[in-house]
Amino acid sequence: MTALDPRPARSPGITYQELLDTDTHPVPDVLRLESPRFLGDADISIERYISREYHELEKERLWKRVWQFACREEHIPGPGDYNLYEIADMSFIVVRQPDMSIKAYPNACLHRGRRLKDYDGHCSELRCPFHGFAWALDGSLADVPARWDFPHVDDRAEVDFMLPECKVATWGGFVFINPDPNCEPFDDFVRDLAEQFEVWKLEDRYVEAHVTKVIAANWKIAQEAFSEAYHVNATHPQILYYLGDTNSQVDVWENCSRVITPALTPSPLLWYEVSQDEMMRSMLDVRTDQDSPVPVPDGASARAIGAAMGRERWRPIAGDMVDSMSDAEFMDSIDYTLFPNFHPWGAFNRIVYRFRPNGDNHRSAIMEVLFLSPFEGERPAPAARRDLTIDESWTTATELGMLAKVFDQDVFNMSKVQLGLETTFKPGITLANYQESKVRWLHTKLGEWVGR
Ligand code: FES
Ligand SMILES: [Fe+2]
């Protein structure tokens, strides 16, 4: 990968690193990293979004071979708990073992192929609902009804009636699977990301909210809408007063990338000055005829006040650790992506996204949002998943708070992007060199995996 000169191609206004210099607390080293990459400026072929053939190639060369986030460990806390992970036309059972390790199997009976499980749940064995073949949790064949009729079925553990296994690994409380028995070691795959999350231990969080929604667009259209802040000015103009959209820092490593978008600093795209008090009012969504609950006095910094509020919000749960955290960690969107589709946010923004094809439909996706929150004492049970249909607004999911309205604005574009790409005469999309370099990175990696 070629390094991009970090100076010339940047928005006017304060850089993210200069903003960090004003922090009231020590800034962690991870936020001081800068890794701009220039990966070329050629258009990206629209076939990647609209062609059935490309979707088939993704299934064969990406989803059957890549490490992918399946569920949280807390979704399967005890032996026999299992979770279904579905990707394109495939389904896998992720099941907790008696020794608390985790195994994953293709969700298919070895008799005549029925899915073994239709829902998440708990079981003492994996028994097929069709004719009743059963496997122990460890995948060994446990029961064949009318066994006398299958003298040709060998049930010794090491032979063909053992459930085939996927590779399984865990990181940060997440369970990853890989259907490819010859895949690269997970530690190598996750290293870039794992090193950067040493300061933000996601294994110590619990799933406070979990919402999915069906999107009428290819999964990459949905994902890319959350891979840059360049769209904020046109799609979310209401947040420009307090978001440094085009000041975002974009960093690309080999297998992960990030966009950091600072808050409580005004957008450089505004052509007039915004006071510190106006920024705070805008972030808190205070009407012009209302008094602000957090007035910012002349000379004070809205960003420092906002971060102090964040510290006090989390102090009862996270303890005095909040005093060692920077303003940036309370205020900014630190949005990481591990290839291909796993998006944990750093620090206290709590968001994790995942984007997948919706079943075998390359013109539809499932967007998923989890809030990972700190907790005190015993781990709370993970939130039940709420599944929104294609027509339901994110605001139905009140647990997402003010973010839901922003998501609705993002989703409003997605089906229109799909329709536009289906109709355009232009063979490719064009990307900004710096602000959209995370989108470029995704496509560079995808090209390496898919082979075109
Ligand atoms: S298909 Fe599963 S027991 Fe027959
Ligand atoms: Fe957005």
What report would you give on this structure?
It is a single chain. With 452 residues, this protein is an alpha+beta fold. It has two domains: 2-49 and 201-450, Naphthalene 1,2-dioxygenase Alpha Subunit, Chain A, domain 1 (Alpha-Beta Complex); 68-182, Rieske Iron-sulfur Protein. It has twelve helices and 22 strands. The chain has helices at residues 16-21, 29-32, 47-50, 52-63, 186-196, 219-224, 232-235, 276-283, 302-318, 327-331, 403-423, 437-450; strands at residues 2-3, 37-38, 44-45, 68-72, 81-87, 90-96, 102-106, 121-122, 126-127, 134-135, 141-143, 167-171, 174-178, 205-215, 249-252, 256-261, 333-338, 342-344, 351-358, 361-374, 386-388, 428-429. The strands form seven sheets. It has a five-stranded mixed beta sheet with strand order 18-19-20-14-21. The structure holds FE2/S2 (inorganic) cluster and fe (ii) ion. Fe (ii) ion (FE2) is lined by residues 225, 231, 235-236, 406, 410.
- Unreliably modeled segments: none
Largest sheet: 5 strands, mixed
| Secondary-structure arrangement, i.e. CATH architecture of the largest domain | Alpha-Beta Complex
CATH topology-level fold name of the largest domain? Naphthalene 1,2-dioxygenase Alpha Subunit, Chain A, domain 1
Question: How is this structure best summarized?
Answer:
The protein is of the alpha+beta class and about 450 residues long. The protein has helices at about 15-20, 30, 45-50, 50-65, 185-195, 220-225, 230-235, 275-285, 300-320, 325-330, 405-425, 435-450, and strands at about 1-5, 35-40, 45, 70, 80-85, 90-95, 100-105, 120, 125, 135, 140-145, 165-170, 175-180, 205-215, 250, 255-260, 335-340, 340-345, 350-360, 360-375, 385-390, 430. It is built from twelve helices and 22 strands.
